[in-house]
Design goal:
Helix content is 27%, strand content 22%. The protein is α+β, with helices and mostly antiparallel strands. The chain has one domain. A 5-stranded antiparallel beta sheet has the order 1-5-3-4-2. The protein is globular, with a radius of gyration of 16 Å. 29% of the residues are buried.
Length: 108
Amino acid sequence: MKTTAALVLCLGTATATVWDGCAWLMSNSNYAGEAYAGEAASPDDCIAMVTAQCPTATIANIQDDAHGDCYCQYGEDPTPDTDGWMTCVLDEHRARGDALRGAQDMME
């Protein structure tokens, strides 16, 4: 008989937001050489569009109202600003996903 375990995360009073899929930073500092990926319905949608359309992109960039124009950007170290855009460094996003998958695998 296979036993399964559940991973439960306690977030206290924190609530999930549309920005939870990455360590988003308010920045548009890596716009040089960016490529338009399209209209995104959410930050997670923008990440998916960027990884599918621009496999060498290192950053997903979306308007700070969590939908709309989405861009593939390049660089490693975005500088915080107040230009109305949010940046997800994809290597950090992938590392978070790998860590979660690793924890899930250990539970099986």
